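User: what does the whole thing look like in 3D?
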Amino acid sequence: MHSFRTMISAAALSVALAAPVTAATQPDAVVATYADVAEAIYSDSLVTAKALQKAVDALIAAPSDETLKAAREAWKAARAPYQQSEGYRFGNAIVDDWEGKVNAWPLDEGLIDYVETKSYGETSDENPLYAANVIANKKLRVGKDEIDATTINTEVLQSLQEAGGVESNVATGYHAIEFLLWGQDLNGTDAGAGERKASDFDTKNCTNGNCDRRAQYLKAATDLLISDLEEIVAAWGKDGDARKDVTGKSADDGLATILTGLGSLSYGELAGERIKLGLILHDPEEEHDCFSDNTHNSHYYDQMGMIAIYNGKYTASDGKVTEGPSLAAYAAEKAPEEAKALDAAFDETAAAMKVMKDRADSGKEAYDQMIGEGNAEGNKIVQDVVDSLVAQARAIEAVVAKLGLKIELEGSDSLDNPTAVQ
Amino acid sequence: MRKAGITVAVLFAATGALAGGRDLSIAIGKALFERAWVPAPSSTLANDGLGPLFNARACSACHQGLDRAARIPDGQGGFTHQGTVVKLSDADGRHDPSYGGQLQTASIPGFEPEGRITMTDAGAGVGDLSFGPMADETRAGLRAAPALRGLGLLAAVPEEAVLANADPDDRNGDGISGRPNWIASPDGSHRLGRFGLKASGVSLAAQTELAFAMDLGMSTLGQPALAGDCLNETCRAAPHGGTLTEPEIRHDLVAMLADYLANVPPPESMTTLEGEKLFAAAGCASCHVPSLPSSHGEVRAFSDLLLHDLGDSLDGGATEPGVAPTEWRTAPLWGMSRAIAAKSGLLHDGRAAGVAEAIALHGGEASAARARYDAMKDTDRAALVRYVEGL
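Assistant: Here's the predicted 3D structure for the full assembly of 813 residues, as structure tokens:
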């Protein structure tokens, strides 16, 4: 069945290229591009994660302000392509099942390392491992089981991930690494990110104890990130399951998968839970990349990724371009008015995001300060991002309707659930 | 970011569902439902004010997955899951003068929890009390955290439809005298109560406010006490996250939570026609009315949303003003299959292991129906139980 469909889409592609008379964009080709762009984005994530791995190795070998700074820069560089992949969530089961390993958040960092108990507290009703601190403790009890963490390796980390069924026990992925590189951000909505010192990894002049184990943890978490990314790159490769899943769907279902991801990320996930929630609570803990103060980039690259997915064109960190027949082109043919509105909505969100990003990059104000209480100017910038994302979701919805598709969006009212419609 | 357990992904046919002017409130309401609140003072005003006394830090701690949770003893007299509280009142619904309307079993640093829930063969009670004995008249009542699905539809049932089933003086002589619970508003008007075990909640927002006050110790517009259900001097002097005019939880947050809950669809059921006939023949359907009308179509909650006296075997201990300890709002039976699957136990406190045991505890106005059920032949009784288990 799969090979049959692949043949069709390949055939459709060659027809489209060879005979401009029938230039109509074929849904199968659009979906094939979607898979190609996924493979390109995850491959780019892997390449940049390997650069992070090198920088982490250098930090552990010779902890210094310079090597720590280099590792932090490498982490930020690795985040940019990864965030662009988030439009593949919400609809690709393999991605949804996998992504918690690399991007779970928020996390109870006390599971991993020492924390400032004054702000963090010492216990939690919901999480018995809230302050388990595996770096300081060679044995941990999870329910009735004991975890031997004499050596902190990838297996130990995997056994701690969501330990005890608590989702905030995040032991692996970008945010665990971020915490180890930056430490807690104790500045609230004031200026400043986490301020971990390189000597936290220095076995000769160790600060805060257990530097050897902290280095072990950082090394293991980085290695695990690499192998997890290798897994997802393979899943989108030529014979990968994620690719097969989406290309094996009917044309309409394939297109619906793409739009479900874009709409859900725009609306409930990004505009709602990640941005608006933090804004109404003015809570710096509601920052996606809270240790590094990199949240503005995290949001910005989510948007860049959505645009890449819609336009069927991704430019990797090394400049390599992957492109093909796009949903944008297909929509422009079948739903020209709605597609035009959606193009404009993507642009508007990107512009609003850019204002937020520039403000943070210029050093004027980090994202957690922008959402701070009483900061009308900063709040407004973030609210503009929310509003544009909601408008973008509406524009996606209009394209969906015109194309005659049906999709599910995260966190949305429903006409089928009429209590919401007054 | 990993999604937590509950997903409110709903199908829409893309004709302006987002354009209803309620942007994001559901998504944010859901996040607030799962949020663990913190004590004051914290770095953010909008975020603090937990306690000083509380039962849980987050709504979702007790209402896990919006369903009733398994009832697993922790070996020390309590339960492993947090979704159980003890209500306190005298027989007329007056709160205990020291402990208030609910026993808070947790506290922020520097405060002592009021006590602990104890379970003995004689039933639930309280122990390790921190502020001396309770008043002699105070009665304790164990309550399991309810499932929270389909509440938006209950809200949509018109008052007239509920009142149509009311028969407070039993004029039709069937032994059943369902009565509405009219709740006085601050402006003197009365509204029909329809939520909660005693039908005392007039709206989802009001129920949410009550839960903030009793379970989390956080003030809202409708429940402005800053210390929640804690009545003593120490609590009053505690740091708070709000003032009387600006509560700890702003009203827009309450509204978003209520909006989220209102949009959780009702649980699905698998029922058989045979069972439905038996259910009606026994008279169960007189109170567990299978269907109520609403502006949004049929509401198959299996409740008339009225109060009924179920007799001494279902004396719930504590109660609320104007409602006898043996009186209960007819429990909606939708979601029964989920409760059975979760092994949560049935009835207000989870004491009944299964449907048959729950039926056996029905007395008072339900006596005749229970007797008819008892008199059925074995196969019919089993079919009826299967039917209810499938709801």
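In plain terms: Residues 151-180+266-389 of chain B form one domain. Chain B touches chain A through 53 residues (CB under 8 Å).
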